[in-house]
């Protein structure tokens, strides 16, 4: 069974792309076959894996709106078992073009269907909004992973996000479920971080990952080298945290069968 996980939060700067790159690479290093889908027009997941977006002939925009077969847009991501369908700035106009498109909320689900049997995990990096691209991801996904930054406004907007997830479940995707909430940029030495963790646990009882992603300079440096942290510096706290998260996510495979 393929597990398709949408990495979603309408807030920017919470670690969605960092999580897509490093969770995907960590799952691949653990031996799982993984496909990353970058549907954020900023394309940070693509550049974070060393993809030169300027020379791409095929991307997720072409798959969604120009009839390009999804298999033709798949690229190797520099890690064994890890592939990616990248995003370019062409995707910036997709929200407007999808408004008048037939079956606009289910485009991504339809185009990914032929690829489903090839991978154990499909991870979708979503833009920082709740527009049509994110709705497509939630309709295509079987699970949702929500990164939450360990900061004062961590829970702001999450009620809106969970409401959207519930509406998608009721109208378009009854099998959609919350895999877990991931606390990112965590510094356990500060009182604020521990208070935020307590708040998130209270808001999402039994749905917060045991692993927290720390503030870590190696995580910040790795994208500039086009590598996930586990290839850049596997001994760093950030790389080790994402490997621990990957084990947590993979351990949940039996539970969803």
Entry keywords:
alpha/beta, 7 strands, seven-stranded mixed sheet, about 260 residues, Rossmann fold
Structural notes for this entry:
The protein is of the alpha/beta class and 257 residues long. It has one domain (3-256): P-loop containing nucleotide triphosphate hydrolases (Rossmann fold). The protein contains eleven helices and seven strands. The chain has helices at 16-29, 44-48, 60-65, 94-99, 107-112, 132-140, 158-171, 191-203, 217-221, 229-232, 237-251, and strands at 3-7, 34-38, 75-76, 82-85, 121-125, 143-149, 177-184. A seven-stranded mixed β-sheet has the order 3-4-2-5-1-6-7, sandwiched between helices. The radius of gyration is 17 Å and the shape is globular.
Describe the protein's topology.
Layout: E1 3-7, H1 16-29, E2 34-38, H2 44-48, H3 60-65, E3 75-76, E4 82-85, H4 94-99, H5 107-112, E5 121-125, H6 132-140, E6 143-149, H7 158-171, E7 177-184, H8 191-203, H9 217-221, H10 229-232, H11 237-251
Parallel strand pairs: 1-5, 1-6, 2-4, 2-5, 6-7
Antiparallel strand pairs: 3-4
